[in-house]
Design goal:
Layout (H helix, E strand, L loop, with lengths): L13 E3 L16 E4 L6 E9 L8 H8 L3 E5 L5 H10 L8 E5 L3 H13 L5 E5 L6 H13 L4 E7 L2 H9 L4 E4 L9 H5 L5 H15 L2 E5 L5 H10 L3 E4 L13 E4 L2 E7 L4 H8 L12 E5 L5 H18 L7 H4 L2 E3 L11
Parallel strand pairs: 3-4, 3-10, 4-5, 5-6, 6-7, 7-8, 8-9, 9-10
Antiparallel strand pairs: 1-14, 2-3, 11-12, 12-13
Helix pairs in contact: 5-7, 8-10
């Protein structure tokens, strides 16, 4: 046993200090990023925000809506091969640049991935997604997937430390998903005692990834557009959103009406709700590590996307970053004890 005494920070612990700027308007800010990936050697351009691969967020309908704004969707792993084929037969041209197919690390997962990619070889992105990215089995699965699909862009996670980011990149991944426990419907930290404050995880993992020429995704912990901006400021190449994109027409989840108000169900993928839906219940050797909540129904996702992108553009004008790429270099975080005046907050 040992204790690390270095301070580790989350989004609520900091704000971004403003700096002189020559920008006259938010409209001058360019949020597009262009990346060339380490192992696949593929290139990508777009707005580096991702809808999470939860079945109450990362749906085919969400992908079609977000693609209109060059925003990415990591599709949840519970669609069948037939559903993938049907969707792709009708989807707009270019959708392959803004979606990833998700997979676990079991033999059935690998077989389904093979079928989808065999029938739809134009798909470019694979997300190998597990809650605990520290197992040797996971690293081996990443290596095998790279060998099978040398030209695909491989996203792998989740981890929160630099040495594991480096190992996964050297094992064939292109982009590493960073975050253990920060999600709004994740209970891993209270069920297991394991986790890492998200801002510090981003800073440390980005440093490791960029040293090798890889990229990271900040996955979880964002509740406001300001949090998304902080994630980018800390060095995240992509930011993945779950709860912020839940509750919309394009989100999955049951629509519920209570006392004349509408809600949509939103749950973590390790919750009892998800496991009962997809695998018949919580196995006796494990515990549920996710919540099931009802979020207010919010209509079309377009307004939420405009709000998020507008917030990030505003951040950039406050620090003088004309391009999103410049935000990290222009960011100085200050420690704070409070974020906002909450007197009129319900």
């Amino acid at each position: 046993m040992r204790i690390e005494y270095d301070i580790k920070l989350g989004f609520k612990d900091v704000m971004i200090r403003p700096k002189r700027s020559t920008l006259k308007s938010r409209a001058q800010v360019n949020l597009d990023r262009e990346f060339k990936f380490l192992n696949s050697k593929a290139s990508w351009m777009g707005v580096p925000i991702m809808a999470a691969n939860m079945d109450t967020v990362g749906t085919f309908e969400m992908a079609l809506a977000l693609m209109e704004h060059c925003v990415f969707t990591v599709i949840h792993k519970h669609y069948s091969v037939a559903e993938w084929n049907q969707f792709l037969s009708k989807a707009p041209q270019g959708i392959e640049n803004f979606i990833a197919i998700s997979t676990g690390t079991g033999s059935k997962d690998a077989e389904k991935l093979k079928h989808v990619l065999t029938e739809n070889p134009f798909l470019k992105f694979i997300c190998i997604d597990v809650a605990n990215g520290y197992s040797e089995h996971f690293v081996s699965f990443v290596q095998n997937t790279r060998n099978l699909y040398p030209d695909k862009v491989i996203i792998a996670g989740n981890v929160v430390t630099g040495e594991m980011v480096e190992e996964l990149l050297l094992s064939g991944a292109d982009i590493i998903k960073v975050g253990i426990g920060p999600g709004s419907v994740c209970t891993t930290r209270v069920k297991t005692g394991v986790g890492y404050p998200q801002l510090s995880a981003i800073i440390e993992c980005a440093d490791a990834a960029h040293g090798l020429g890889g990229q990271i995704i900040s996955d979880g912990g964002c509740a406001t557009p300001g949090d998304v901006a902080k994630a980018f400021g800390a060095g995240a190449d992509f930011v993945m959103l779950g709860g912020m994109l839940a509750g919309h027409d394009e989100s999955g989840g049951e629509l519920i009406e209570k006392n004349g108000e509408k809600f949509k169900q939103f749950y973590g993928m390790s919750s009892a709700t998800a496991m009962e839906k997809h695998v018949g219940g919580v196995a006796e050797y494990r515990a549920s590590e996710g919540k099931t909540v009802e979020v207010p129904y919010r209509g079309k996702v377009i307004q939420t996307i405009h709000d998020i992108l507008g917030g990030i553009r505003s951040t950039c004008t406050y620090v003088g970053a004309q391009r999103l790429k410049e935000l990290t270099k222009r960011t100085t975080f200050i420690r704070v004890a409070e974020q906002e005046n909450r007197i009129y907050t319900k």
